[in-house]
Amino acid sequence: MPIQTIPTRPFADQKPGTSGLRKKVSIFRQPHYLENFVQAIFDSLPEKQGQTLVVGGDGRYYNRQAIQIILKMAAATGFGRVLVGRGGILSTPAASCLIRKYAALGGIILSASHNPGGPQADFGIKYNTENGGPAPEQVTEAIFARSKSLSAYKILQAEDLELDRLGVFRLDTMTVEIIDPVNDYAQLMESLFDFDRIRELLTNGQFRMVMDSLHAVTGPYAHRLFEQRLGAPLGTVHNGEPLEDFGGGHPDPNLVYAHELVDILFGEHAPDFGAASDGDGDRNMILGRHFFITPSDSLAILAANAHLVPAYRSGLAGIARSMPTSQACDRVAAHLGIDCYETPTGWKFFGNLLDAGRITLCGEESFGTGSNHIREKDGLWAILFWLNILAARQQSVEEIVRHHWRVYGRNYYSRHDYENVDSDRANALMENLYSTIKTLNGKLIGNHQITYCDDFSYTDPVDYSVSRNQGIRIGFSDGSRIVFRLSGTGTQGATLRVYLERYEPKVSNQNFDPQIALKHLIHIAEDLAQIRYYTGMEKPTVIT
Ligand code: G16
To answer: What class, spelled out in words, does domain 185-408 have in CATH?
Structure first.
């Protein structure tokens, strides 16, 4: 079959963000746009001849078309074998699992994660390296650099492949294996957790759970794991069929966008446990009956209870959290006598620590938790981890969380997002903050004494690479913190994120609504950053 060399011109906007390249579908559908980026990825990789590549996505609009293009370009580049999830479906954690298990050179994952899907909505593409994790900054920089100098790309002239039929097919000299997207991942989960105990819990006739897959990629995984392998009643998984537009919803597992699940868990006759995952299956939200757990608390509680889970019974090497994530897990790490690392936002920053064996668990405030079992955050893994703990402790979610706060104290936590802000105004707000922070050290605001103020910079302890400008931190003498940063995953305007945290050791003070407990910090944040002035908004668009 002939390989065509198609002349092209660079696009200036192909710089990967926090997690790959995310844009509107209309941008990706411009002639040569996707092809250019894929060629930039391939050109930035070492020897590709005969290597294995994993390809799949979250099933959103344009997933199938993009896969056909990538397969033909992979064949033209000389890959030997590509593993593709049936129907083009692979969750991000499953792709990471496959890359590692089959010693692939890497994988291309098509997803804009929690962003909405459909012809008018978002699409995304990211490259994961041979450890199964998101490409580190050196690689994404190389891809971006290459994208700016491309003059042609190579593609095989061939018919589209049938993606819905399992089997082995050929594209010129390259083999394409259409595989069951769930099998390998389900096997991995079974090797980590106490499935017998979880099955007892889910079939005892007392305990009820609801899993909301939000019409995104985890549907087939959740049906297989919870209903088929673990015996939960049919109907446990809601919205389990992946749809190209996620049923018109926003596949983001938080209190705002997963409101159907929230209504069930906070309604009459609520089940004991509720969970949701996002577009590509790497995020998780955990709810108990009438009870919400912040992702930061969830990470701390998983760490404190890891000894109850077979895979982690022998202890944790260390824990890492992204900088804006609350410091709740730091206290658990101190108690366990293990290291706790603070990294910039972005899962890619955990990769070196995991590869070097310095950490076992890691997590982020943005509803992501994971471990050394793969190199991505993993929504269903976190949900199974919680079920394993519930089965072992025979207590409710709320009892477990309150017990944790009694022992370690409570880190009140909230994130305020101001979405779709004019980019120039958002940059001006940050510029203004950068110039203000120099004068803030030691200042008293109300009865809050500022003890440090900086622009977070991270030196990777494994390869010593340095990442600067990762967000502004303002710390107070009582351990409270305010963090400001601009999101790196949006596709429209800018999103300002304000992260607020206050530590409360006293049990009698642990029962407030976080928005009340944090109200002084919220006011300080608004004043210092002049949020209303710069954004033109009276209040955040999303509070989690
Ligand atoms: C991605 C990254 C996460 C990050 C999140 C939010 O998650 O993998 O590490 O915390 O974006 O990033 P930002 O605050 O820059 O928008 P996902 O689930 O969107 O791939």
So the answer is: alpha beta
